[in-house]
Design goal:
By secondary structure, this protein is of the alpha/beta class. Helices cover about 35% and strands about 15% of the residues. It folds into 3 domains: about 120 residues, Alpha-helical ferredoxin (Fumarate Reductase Iron-sulfur Protein, Chain B, domain 2, Orthogonal Bundle); about 160 residues, 3-Layer(bba) Sandwich (FAD/NAD(P)-binding domain); about 160 residues, FAD/NAD(P)-binding domain (3-Layer(bba) Sandwich), CATH 3.50.50. The strands form 5 sheets. A 5-stranded parallel beta sheet has the order 5-4-3-6-18, sandwiched between helices. Strand 9, helix 15 and strand 10 form a beta-alpha-beta unit. The longest helix has 21 residues. The chain is globular and about 70 Å long.
Length: about 475
């Protein structure tokens, strides 16, 4: 490495957030980007570890030690080339990836790990500013056409990789904008949408065709698509939300997280909204679910002017540090405090929602009980038990359900093609990503279930490789 003792001289420092009093008034990025000089200094901490477990921990296999070395040495063009070779959208992963690589960093065994994600973001943003990120259309075309249904991270990855191989790729998206969950599910204060527009403009100039407001399986029938394309890849996401089937669920004022976040993103981008406007202004908001989506709801509710926000989670509060249950280099279950949590609100764990209560058909309060997970079953799995006498209520004018998703939507193209589904309700594929229908493939959350953006990028790339093998070798 450029400085083999850099990790002994430099301590880990991360990018700063804009002041709470300022950022809570808008939807701009909460993070203030580091200077290139600061990022180069942080890159010097990447030690000559011999076996880079960061590369093992990264689903897309980024060449992390190599581009850290180039970043430290001032060779930004070479750092960009390496980063660009494995990651189609480092400007996205550099902002919202949970950085599995950092938890696998060798330096993290007895010190703070390298700021890999922020170094990645520094490389790509500096490359954009220097004009290094330009369209690179393939030099030749195969003459074969592939349709990708869904423009989320898996769909974009599949399309970009197939386009590089010379295929004529058309991406069908039922919404009016490209990006799927990146555009509609993630708030602008974490991922501003001009970042997506900048990249999709490059994709279009490289030859990818985007067709928006087209829902395959309805007006555009799947059988027609099969006749017009040599292969199809379904990247539909996992869009069916998990619900709470408890008394009072039919009361007004209870919403799914993705409906809430999606609508706010559409409002902010200027799209016309029909139907009820979901707004937290002046309301007592309860977010059920302690994950990243719940955190995004907390940040959005605070920006809308909620009078108070409470986030509850049924699972126990995670440890502050890595425990023996999650040894290095595995990804640990630890307590995460996001920028949204710092902006206000209350967080509580080990709370089970028992009933929604209200009057005049509208939510007014939630009946809850505290739970304990100290006992285990025969398989050593924790068993949830309600704590007798711990019942209590939380006042609520508005409730947001952020408890995950169960599987891909079964209506539309999945039903139109009569695709086989696995036991969890996702699209069933073989080891080469092909579904039960010849020349139809699937990747991302619609195949593996709800997961991370970086895994979706990996799925899309692997599906593209399988499609290439199918179209060139006549085999799955």
């Amino acid at each position: 490495m450029g400085d083999p003792r850099g990790f002994l001289k430099v301590k880990r420092t991360i990018s700063e957030y804009r002041p709470v009093c300022e950022r809570i008034r808008d939807y701009r990025d909460v993070v203030t980007l580091r200077s290139p000089e600061k990022s180069a200094e942080q890159a010097s901490r990447c030690m000559d570890c011999g076996t880079p477990f960061c590369n093992w921990g990264c689903p897309i296999g980024n060449y992390i030690p190599e581009w850290n070395d180039y970043l430290f040495s001032g060779l930004g063009d070479k750092a960009f080339e390496l980063l660009n070779s494995t990651n189609i959208m480092p400007e996205v992963t550099g902002r919202i990836c949970p950085a599995l690589c950092e938890y696998a960093c060798v330096l993290g065994i007895n010190d703070d790990p390298v700021t890999i994600r922020e170094n990645e973001l520094s490389i790509i943003e500096e490359s954009f500013s220097r004009g290094l990120v330009v369209p690179r259309p393939p030099q030749r075309r195969t003459g074969k056409k592939v349709a990708v249904v869904g423009s989320g991270p898996a769909g974009l990855s599949c399309a970009a990789n197939l386009n590089k191989m010379g295929y004529d790729v058309t991406v069908f998206e039922r919404d009016s904008g490209i990006g799927g969950i990146l555009r509609y599910g993630i708030p602008d204060f974490k991922l501003e949408k001009h970042i997506l527009d900048r990249r999709t403009d490059i994709f279009e100039k490289e030859g990818i065709s985007f067709k928006t407001n087209v829902e395959v399986g309805k007006k555009y029938r799947a059988q027609k698509m099969l006749k017009e394309f040599d292969a199809v890849c379904l990247c539909l996401g996992s869009r069916v939300p998990r619900d709470l089937d408890i008394k009072g669920r039919d009361l007004k004022g209870i919403y799914f997280a993705m409906d809430y976040l999606s609508q706010q993103n559409r409002i902010f981008s200027g799209e016309k909204i029909t139907g009820e406007i979901i707004n937290a202004k002046g309301k007592k908001v309860v977010v059920i679910g302690g994950g990243d989506t719940g955190s995004d709801c907390v940040g959005t509710a605070n920006r809308q002017g909620a009078s108070c926000v409470v986030q509850i989670e049924v699972m126990p509060k995670p440890d502050n540090c890595r425990s023996d249950r999650h040894p290095w280099p595995s990804y640990p279950l630890i307590l995460k405090t996001s920028s949204s949590h710092e902006e206000g609100g209350e967080r509580n764990w080990s709370i089970l929602t028992k009933e929604f209560c209200g009057g005049k058909n509208r939510i007014e309060r939630i009946l809850c009980v505290r739970v304990d997970f100290s006992e285990t079953d025969a398989g050593r799995c924790p068993v949830m038990k309600e704590i007798k006498g711990s019942e209590f209520e939380i006042e609520a004018d508005m409730v947001i359900l952020a408890v995950g998703f169960i599987h891909v939507e079964h209506k539309g193209v999945v039903a139109d093609l009569k695709l086989e589904k696995d036991k969890r309700g996702n699209i069933k594929t073989d080891e080469n990503y092909m579904t039960s229908v010849e020349k139809v493939f699937s990747a991302g959350d619609s195949r593996r279930g709800q997961s991370l953006v970086v895994w979706a990028f990996d799925e899309g790339r692997k599906a593209a490789q399988s499609i290439h093998g199918y179209l060139t070798g006549g085999k799955k």
